[in-house]
Amino acid sequence: MGPGNLAGASVGTTAVGAPPRPDALVYIANLHSDTVSVVDTGMVVDSVPVADGPDSVAVSPDGARVYVTNSASDTVSVIDARTRTVIATVAVGDEPSRVTVSPDNRNVYVANVGSDDVSVISTRTRAVTDTIAVGDAPLGVAVAPDGCTLYVANAASDTVSVVRTATRTVTGTIPVGSGPTALVPTPDGRRLYVSNLTSDDVSIVDVHDGAETDRIPVGDQPAGIGVLPDGRQVYVANIGSDNVSVISTRGRAVTETVAGGDGPNGLAVGPDGSLVYVSNFDSDTLSVIDTSTARVTDTVTVGDGPTGVAAVQPLQGRAQEGGFGWVAARVWGLRSGDEASRGSQTSHRHPHGGPGDPPGGGGR
């Protein structure tokens, strides 16, 4: 579908007295409908068909390209943001989970939870140029603001891999909480915040020392995570408790808990930090949180099973992206069962129900 095709579009329900504030163009990967919803000013303006099991989404720094991991087809779809059509499909590793783009717009990094590695895609050739072995079941991936370091959350080994992007080699491994799922660096690049799915907390990592310095309890099964541009607050989507924790980076504690939709998992901070966007897997909605009040001001109906979210100024500026996909269910099996469960869950790769459901509810 191209621009202007509004089939299935829904208008958001905005709180009384809160006029819509155009903050970003938002892309949401819908796991069960195999689409990416495009939301602009509180309504779905387009729905882009992709491959099987879209799980995560990232936007290029110039806003021109959208990259979508398709966890059930082991591919990445490349969407032209102007035409809103898929212009390329790139084969990557096994069960791609998270994706991010380098600040210089040269490379795309894809965490493959099934093959325990990261695929590096050239944005110019749209082909995999390297594969980096990391820890067990990598789910989260993030690039430092200066582009020199890639961080990978390894959910089944409870670690973060530190990768030097120039050489594409692992230079360090940092122990964190249990089941690290997503991670985000602060704007100054000095700290890293890691959501730990199975220990219900967020690790703070000192990047210079390469070590965890603190751990903050949050809600049940924290997943998507994002930091505001001023670095003062971190937002965490708690998929198991249906809420969002707001952390003060100065006080290193939760200062607010925002009630959201059903199964909040993906999270992205808007470009100017005034709004935070959260995908709700079980209610098929996108919640919009006003960061000045820490309250939901808008709810937009999107596709079926929304997971990853990215928010960016239209065709300009660097996006923030976040998400928590169905592939984490495989890791949940590892955390609560034995190693044999890994092979059995891999066989159930299609996201529509069954053993591949994420923790916290059936049918995710």
Description:
The relative contact order is 0.16. The protein is mainly beta and 364 residues long. It has a 5-stranded antiparallel β-sheet with strand order 1-28-27-26-25, with no helix packed on it. The chain has a 5-stranded antiparallel β-sheet with strand order 4-3-2-29-30, with no helix packed on it. 4% of the residues lie in helices and 50% in strands. The two termini are 26 Å apart. β10 and β11 form a beta hairpin. The model is unreliable at 1-20 and 325-364 (pLDDT under 50). The chain is built from 2 helices and 30 strands. The protein has helices spanning 328-336, 340-346, and strands spanning 13-14, 25-30, 35-40, 43-49, 54-59, 65-70, 75-80, 85-91, 96-101, 107-112, 117-122, 127-133, 138-143, 149-154, 159-164, 169-175, 180-185, 191-196, 201-206, 211-217, 222-227, 233-238, 243-248, 253-259, 264-269, 275-280, 285-290, 295-301, 306-312, 320-322. α1 (328-336) packs antiparallel against α2 (340-346).
Keywords summarizing the entry:
single chain; about 375 residues; mainly beta; five-stranded antiparallel beta sheet; globular; disordered N terminus; disordered C terminus
Give the helices and strands, then pairings.
Elements: E1 13-14, E2 25-30, E3 35-40, E4 43-49, E5 54-59, E6 65-70, E7 75-80, E8 85-91, E9 96-101, E10 107-112, E11 117-122, E12 127-133, E13 138-143, E14 149-154, E15 159-164, E16 169-175, E17 180-185, E18 191-196, E19 201-206, E20 211-217, E21 222-227, E22 233-238, E23 243-248, E24 253-259, E25 264-269, E26 275-280, E27 285-290, E28 295-301, E29 306-312, E30 320-322, H1 328-336, H2 340-346
Antiparallel strand pairs: 1-28, 2-3, 2-29, 3-4, 5-6, 6-7, 7-8, 9-10, 10-11, 11-12, 13-14, 14-15, 15-16, 17-18, 18-19, 19-20, 21-22, 22-23, 23-24, 25-26, 26-27, 27-28, 29-30
